[in-house]
Specification:
Blueprint (H helix, E strand, L loop, with lengths): L13 E3 L5 E3 L2 E2 H5 L6 E5 H18 L4 E6 L6 H9 L3 E4 L2 H9 L7 E3 L6 H10 L3 E4 L2 H14 L3 E8 L21 E2 L3 H12 L3 E7 L10 H19 L6 E3 L17 H18 L6 E4 L3 H4 L3 E6 L10 E5 L9 H5 L5 E3 L9 E7 L8 E9 L6 E5 L19 E6 L2 E6 L27
Parallel strand pairs: 4-20, 5-6, 5-13, 6-7, 7-8, 8-9, 9-10, 9-11, 11-12, 12-13, 15-17
Antiparallel strand pairs: 1-2, 2-3, 4-14, 14-19, 16-19, 17-18, 20-21
The chain binds ligand LLP.
Length: 453
């Protein structure tokens, strides 16, 4: 197996050293894996920065009016990431009080934050209103009523945008398609109450109605749905304009997919933004409207390809089947995506690159007590032995974010790699965390207490 057979040839920063070990930014991944007994998430800082800059560059090339990037923090968020985003002059899309809390710990500028969510709590709304953020993305009529009441009681003027569901077919996994009719998010474009909702926001003295948001879904690589949605939304904006309702900003959500395996097509950030901007400019021109501020909320396309996960192989199992089980020291507790969305991944054995020995087909399984805890259904790898380091590629997005303590596995640490050096971005979770919030009521403490007493 020559190293160029591997998918990693398409990713940035990987190479093979003289020991035939896989390296990332010159760091030997076999050595890095020894830093922990748990899996390790590794992020390449340069790739994150490059992707953000690619968005900025493409927007300034293809969009002649003002544009703003709001990183979708649900994809991966911690303190260091907030600082990095701020250095890159990027805004933040949060969808919970927890995400806002993390941003606040870094003094992330409130005017660069937007707040999402289909069921925002009173406390979340109050916090967003008090912080006077760029805009709350309103999901439904009751939420707008709540915002109105809170704003009036505080004598505040709250910035809002309305999330409209454009109702188009979206080519992605059903669990992550949001622009379809069945979606729980936003208000449908063809529902008459959507119009009344916008009118109410526009007329209220306690609301600054900034514009319209739509988000089609995630892991999208086919852009037909975008052009359909853009046409529908902009013709809606034209109707609003004709009734003197001004839409100053248009937020087109996130969604650009990442290639995870050799079979996946890659779509460049530049190509994606070019096509979207051309579509938007054309429709605005056709409708004789002035271009709005354009907002975009990318997540996966910024950070997925910057990440990989290092696992160690355990004891190989199975002799009666063509495909052997190769268990790793992690699983669905650190990468839920294969179990949840049947997501596929590529991997390599970091200590067996340029391998010319025997190969074998494996099913890479985790150590959680679930039959569905399979990270890769079938992959051909150099014949594996316990202790081999398995690198799974493109794990920067929605892995750490979806990780859990199932089976009381502690959460892996996150290493940030840059210029041949690494730093911890999040430490591995200590076992003490697992009982940190447990309380033992007094009556449970006595050892020989007869329950019938
Ligand atoms: N904006 C909104 C309103 C969103 O709901 C999302 C993602 C994004 C932006 C960012 O989308 P992206 O650029 O990352 O595709 N856990 C799933 C993905 C869930 C997406 C949730 N919303 C997965 O691992 O595939």
């Amino acid at each position: 197996m020559k190293s160029h057979d591997h998918f990693f040839g398409r990713l940035e920063g990987f190479a093979v050293n003289e020991k035939n070990h896989l390296t990332l930014n010159s760091l030997d991944l076999v050595q890095l894996a020894q830093l922990s007994d748990r899996p390790l998430y590794v992020l390449n800082e340069l790739v994150i920065r490059k992707n953000i800059r690619a968005y900025r560059q493409a927007l300034s090339t293809y969009y002649p009016a003002e544009s703003h990037i709001f990183y979708a923090s649900k994809v991966f968020l911690n303190l260091g990431m907030c600082y990095l985003l701020n250095q890159e002059h990027t805004g933040l899309d949060v969808c919970s009080e927890g995400e806002l809390f993390i941003a606040n710990q870094t003094d992330f500028p409130h005017e660069k934050i937007i707040f999402h969510g289909n069921n925002k709590s009173q406390s979340e709304l109050e916090k967003a209103i008090d912080a006077n953020i760029f805009a709350i993305m309103v999901d439904n009529a009751c939420e707008l009523e709540d915002i109105l009441k809170i704003s009036e009681s505080k004598n505040a003027i709250t910035n809002v945008m309305i999330r409209i569901n454009p109702v188009v077919e979206v080519d992605t996994h059903a669990y992550i398609a949001t622009g379809v009719r069945e979606s729980k998010f936003g208000v449908p474009i063809d529902d008459p109450s959507t119009w009344s909702l916008i009118e109410l926001a526009f007329k209220s003295p306690f609301i600054h109605f900034k514009g319209i948001h739509f988000h089609l879904g995630s892991q999208i690589t086919e852009l037909t749905a975008y052009s359909q949605a853009i046409k529908k939304i902009i013709s809606y904006i034209k109707r609003l304009h004709d009734k003197c309702i001004h839409v100053e900003a248009l937020n087109i959500g996130g969604g650009l997919g990442a290639p995870y395996t050799i079979a996946d097509q890659s779509l460049s950030i530049d190509g994606f933004i070019k096509e979207l901007c051309q579509g938007i400019c054309e429709e605005y021109q056709l409708n004789n409207l002035e271009l709005p501020k354009l907002m975009i909320e990318p997540g996966r396309s910024i950070i997925a390809s910057a990440g990989c996960t290092l696992y160690k192989i355990g004891h190989i199992k199975g002799d009666r089947s063509e495909i052997l089980y190769a268990p790793v020291n992690g699983g669905m507790s650190d990468n839920l995506r294969p179990s949840l969305y049947q997501a596929e991944y590529s991997a390599a054995i970091a200590n067996k690159m340029n391998w010319d020995g025997p190969t074998q087909k494996y099913k890479i399984v985790g150590k959680c007590c679930e039959t569905g805890d399979v990270l890769i259904q079938k992959i051909t790898l150099p014949q594996c032995s316990p202790g081999d380091v398995l690198v799974m590629f493109v794990t920067g997005a929605y892995q750490h974010a979806l990780a859990s303590n199932y089976n009381k596995h502690t959460l892996p640490g996150v290493l940030l790699v840059r210029d041949g050096a690494y730093e911890w971005l999040t430490k591995e979770q200590p076992y003490s965390d697992l009982i940190q919030h447990d309380l033992v009521p007094l009556h449970l403490r006595g050892r020989d207490k007869n329950l019938n007493d």
